[in-house]
Amino acid sequence: MEPSRDPGARLRGVPRRPGLPTFLSGASPTFVGVVHLLPTPGSPRSAGSLAPVLARAVEDARALVAGGCDALLVENFGDAPFHPRSVPPETVAALALAVDAVRSASGGRPVGVNVLRNDARAAIGICAATGASFVRVNVHAGAAASDQGILEGRAHETLRERARLAPGVAILADAHVKHATPLGKETLGEAVRELVGRALADAVVVSGRETGSPPSASDLREAREAAGDAPVLVGSGLSVENALDLLPLVDGAIVGTSLERGGRTAEPADPERVARLRAVFDRLRA
Q: What is the pLDDT, as a whole number, of residue 82?
């Protein structure tokens, strides 16, 4: 007998969590801009002070808002090489302050956090403390080999901690995340069905092989078919040049590099580049 392609088939009779944050359930495609933080205190390239990190985060947030992003995602991108599991207390503290500062500059837009490389527990705690709306989790289910070592999904922990601390927070989970190789032999579609049907992700993120690299159209089609009614977002590499080809296949995109000065990762956000990409989103919404 052919296996069911319904992501909820293995949990028949168990309802999905009702509702999604407005930035995922509203007009599609959704435009999420990334705030790539400078190195935070305690990371190898940190200058030692958090003040310039926060100042730059606010500057980037304002540029993303001015250009037309629907939501913002804060990442400790400058902290490489990343901890593969839990990050230290100073990183959690720095991210909490950064998320709070970005929320103040967001003009009421939803703000999320990704604690790199894979600390979903810290991300949930930051949301509980700051009122942030969503988290991105690089490996929510399964396991992957990366430059940080083995990354393991902890959906069982993340979902229980969300229920305890921040039940309104959405989980955006990567399928076959960039800069990593899945340890299992599952196809992308199978990974997506597991994320939605068993790991109970609220949305699925599909990226290319590395930061700034887009996923293929075929991968997006496969993920979209497997995700059922869960939103699918492009997780890397979206640009003005490819947006008309990729955005019709998904429900939104998380965009960082192409919005930054010169299209170079971790440069300051450029409101003109944001506005040019926003125009493509608006064209597809019309």
A: 97
Question: pLDDT digits over 48-57, tens only?
Answer: 999 999 999 9
Whether 124 and 46 share a structural domain: yes
In a domain, 9, yes or no: no
Co-location of 39 and 135 in the same domain = yes
Are 136 and 206 within one domain?
no
DSSP letter string, the chain:
-PPP--TTGGGTT-PPPP---HHHHSSSSEEEEEEEPPPPTTSTT--S-SHHHHHHHHHHHHHHHHHT-SEEEEE-GGGPSPPSSPPPHHHHHHHHHHHHHHHHTTTT--EEEE-TTT-HHHHHHHHHHH---EEEES-SSSEEEETTEEEE--HHHHHHHHHHH-TT-EEEEEES-TTEEESS---HHHHHHHHHHTS--SEEEE--SSTTPPPPHHHHHHHHHHTTTS-EEE-S---TTTHHHHGGGSSEEEE-GGGBGGG-TTSPB-HHHHHHHHHHHHHHH-
**229-257 confidence digits (pLDDT tens):** 999 999 999 999 999 999 999 999 999 99
Q: pLDDT tens digits, residue range 191-216?
A: 999 999 999 999 999 999 888 899 99
